[in-house]
Prior knowledge:
This protein has 187 residues and is α+β, with helices and mostly antiparallel strands.
Amino acid sequence: MKNKSNNSGFSLMELIVSISIITLLTAIFLANYHTINQRTDLTMTAQVMVSDIRSAQANALGLIKYEGEIPQGGWGVFLSAYADEGGQYIIFADMDGDQTQSGDEAAISYGAKTVTLPPKINIDGIFLPNGSQVFKANIIFLPPDPLTYIVTEQGTTTSLSIRLKENVNNTTKTVRINFLGLVEVID
Length: 187
């Protein structure tokens, strides 16, 4: 009489190899998930900035009042690439018409807005059409057209590129605006 042994289970070696493959695939997925999540945050931040710039433009077109009166210089957005200010930008009413954010033109209680960027994302650079970098810029929309003025410490320019940087993976997105008021996210 022959004793037939029918082993229908996994051997120890097959089980170890299977668990190793599952562990490796899980580790790869988790590493990519974190990277993709950071890129998504950067993309969303760029889109929110575009929306906020358009909001300032809409405030100028709609003759939205600030502190009970229509701002003499329209509505604008103040941007800074300085490290201590690069984590936010300000939507303000240009009450004195000087095409810059100053004094009490950014009071939240009257309709202005300070937007804080997500952690680990900042304004890495502000660039003129010729590629030179500036550190502060004001984008002003003057009603009723609205006319668009882009004012930096080097004077008025026809367009501006704002580079946002995500500091974990060092990826960037650029928001560009021109003198016609066209705002877009590039690259």
